[in-house]
Amino acid sequence: MRKFQLYIVPTPIGNIKDITLRAIDVLKEVDLIACEDSRVTQKLLNHYEIRTKCISYHKYNEKERLNLLSDYIKEGKTIALVSDAGTPMICDPGYVLINELLKRGVSINALPGACVVPTFLSAVPRETEDFLFIGFIGKTEKQITETFKKYSDMNLLFYDSPNRIVKTLEYLENVRPVAKVAVGRELTKLFETIIIKDVKTAIKEIEPKGEFVCFVYKDEKGQTSDLDLKIKALKDKDYGAKDITTILTSLYPDLNKNEVYKKTI
What is the pLDDT of residue 1? Predict the structure, then answer.
């Protein structure tokens, strides 16, 4: 079997049993494990009786650690790169090290394993396989709303924090009031939940605790229109379906009363 110099090793995203036998073997056999937080990784290593030495490698010291790890490999030793949970390079550190080591001709091997994206998507029904993964969504209202507007014709996948997820979905509802979403919380853990609903219902049912991943279904052709936004604005002011229909058809004579009413209810 070919011996590589750097191994990219996925670790469990929640359930400590979600690690491959090969990953355990690699972590036992390498000379050094580069990890985000040694306290987190050590819990995993202790559980599987892995005694390999660890060294910190995170987004704040990537460049600083580069030469040290490179020199380690030059000495003929092997390294495993892990993140606190999931797969390195998927919203986790690794780019600086991997990019530079490839330039230096170092042999690198990526192991398959735990990752939020495929785990979540395997439980989310969708007609097509295409989707856009953007990692963590922006933090400001402007960034978030522009993202939802820009990618309304694409299935969109992103991570979000518990203290922002409700507000993020409220921004979505404001610009795409009939959007359909799938929201995953605490995947593989004891209180794992996946909600697949319209955005308005999802907001009501979400418990903002734990780690979140969200899939926004692309709009069907003509799904979110200017009419939808007008209806939502009137609903927010507590107008009933009949009143909304009367108001909109009075202001816009070309609108069909039956169609407006059906949309409203």
Answer: 46
